[in-house]
Amino acid sequence: MFHFHAIFRAEPKGGYTAIVPSLPGCVSYGKTLAEAQRMIKDAIEVYVMSLMKHGEVVPTDDLSFVASIHIEEARSQRKTRAYASKATA
Fold it and tell me: 5 and 66 in contact (C-beta within 8 Å)?
């Protein structure tokens, strides 16, 4: 059994895009969240089968976790200006 993190993003024109960061290029889409989940599961299975067929290591997310990081907009803008000032100095 393999363990992977998938990230789901609601698209502005509808539907959901799903990506698996530990499997570069493993991306799928569904009109609903449930469809996107089914589609990314299928994509992962095909990706893993291909890696195994070619004798490559299957990277997993067994030792990683997902966290949301929130940054205040004003603070990040101050840092951006500070870096820009240093770059032009």
Answer: yes
